[in-house]
Amino acid sequence: MANSPHLSSANPSINSTRDLRLHAPSKLQPSATFSFLPTSLQTERELEKMLIITIAHPLRTLVGLLGNLLSAMVVLAPVPTFYRICKKKSTESFDSVPYVVGLFSATMWVYYGLLTADVLLLTINIGVCAVEVIYLAIFIVYAAPKSRAYTTKLILSINLGIFGCLVLVSNLFIKPSKRAQITGGICASFAVAVFVAPLNIIRLVIKTKSVEFMPFTLSFFLTLSAVAWFSYGLLLRDLFVAVPNVFGFTLGVTQIIIYLVYMNHHKDGAAPADLELPVKDTENGDQV
């Protein structure tokens, strides 16, 4: 994350504290041994510094906590969907890809949070990882055999394979001074891709003239969450956090506007009779 100025205080121990953000790894000595944890988290002293940095910036901490709260609301939004899956003992036409992607994104942000010693990024994304794992476990239990196998392959290839390779390459071949920047770039790029993905839903709403497929509360909290994390990134001077949320805010506002335009169409939630929406064959998971 972007460099923050040294803390100003009469206490020399605080003045000497380094801000472990985007360019901070350059100030750390390379670790002699391989470790998943960055050098900045291998000693209690560095943990103390991380806490001091957090406490010394109350506004930034407050905005980050707000971002945590809003992100929690977003990640918990699919709970009714999975309650329905459990109740019907079938995944019906629901797709597992968004949850696999969400888990990968969260694990990447956890790694970035470790590299930059960012408590607020760590807490929310560890929580997101836990929730996404629960979602995927429920999906696998109730999915059709073909869909279950496909979801399992995605998890193994993306969440274990790709993420594991990135961490391995980062620790073995990238200098500690560059790890945070490269990891942050990957996180930001992937976050933009995640924000762009719902464009399919927007197109579907316009085509069907029904907002059944785009809940207002989810769009609303996505927008607020993007604002909070954009503000947090600015206060932190971290473009990797701020820039992707510009896309998130733009998408959220677009979804809200489209919702307001089409909210009075097809109040019964039914799609136009002449349009067949794609669904999945519950027997084998194929889309028909």
UniProtKB/TrEMBL annotation:
Belongs to the SWEET sugar transporter family. It comes from Zingiber officinale. Keywords: Cell membrane, Membrane, Repeat, Sugar transport, Transmembrane, Transmembrane helix, Transport. Signal peptide: none annotated. GO terms for cellular component: plasma membrane. It comes from the Eukaryota. InterPro entries: SWEET, SWEET_rpt. This is Bidirectional sugar transporter SWEET.
